[in-house]
Amino acid sequence: MPAMAQDSDEDEIDNTLQFVDSKGNVIADGSEITVDSLEDEGFQCQVSSGLFVNNTSSETVYAGMEVNITRLDNGFISCCFPVNCQIGKHVGTFSTMAGAIDGGTQNKTIQTEWVPSDATSYGQASAVFRICMYVKGPGTKYIPTGYGPSVTINFVNRNPAGIKSIGTSTAGKKVAAIYNVRGESLSQMQKGLNIVRYTDGTVKKLLL
Q1: What is the DSSP letter of 4?
Q2: Which tens digit of pLDDT belongs to each residue from 51-70?
Q3: Beta-bridge partner residues of 131
Q4: Calpha distance 167→151 (Å, rounded)
Q5: Distance between CA atoms of residues 29 and 39, nearest Å
Q6: From CA 104, how far away is CA 60, in angstroms rounded?
Q7: Which CATH number fits domain 17-161: 2.60.98, 1.10.1740, 2.60.40, 2.30.30?
Q8: Residue 139 CA, distance from chain mean position
Q9: Stretch 28-57: mean pLDDT
Q10: Residue 34 vs residues 15, 37, 41, 162: alpha-carbon distances, Å
Q11: pLDDT digits over 138-175, tens only?
Q12: Positive or negative: CA dihedral 13, 110, 188, 39
């Protein structure tokens, strides 16, 4: 958990950034949702959060994500909001690095999913995702100022009938760029977590 500024009130929520679903509907602070669509990427299977973030202001803001994993039957939870990726493999809390979100940004994916050990590793992963707000400090430093909304996501892998194969949809796509978890460009996929951006704008995270 980032250390908040001394004069901030942790109970006061900064609603500049809002969680929304794929249709732009606002997910209220403190909501709990369940997602159970298992996608087969070929390299791995994953259950995506399906959530996005809107910047309701016209100004650039700086934010990261605090992830408190409360249940993890197997696999890991990955979060790449707003840019760099972090992985949680155990119950506990981790945070992503702060980054800029331009004013008026709509439907910025939080790039978050549960990656089960394999398609037949049934069970659940649950975590509380809370937006952490910052201001830009000197150099590359970000100073925490408070918290934005939070949402609890229950990722569920129910049974093989729930698998949504998207291997054919990605097979015909052209790769535009590959990055590691630090956002550094790669010439090819490497062992570990790879972030693949396709020419149609979609982004997938693949673990080798």
Answers
A1: P
A2: 999 999 999 999 999 999 99
A3: 65
A4: 29
A5: 27
A6: 8
A7: 2.60.40
A8: 26
A9: 90
A10: 23, 10, 21, 14
A11: 888 999 999 999 999 999 987 554 444 434 345 456 78
A12: positive
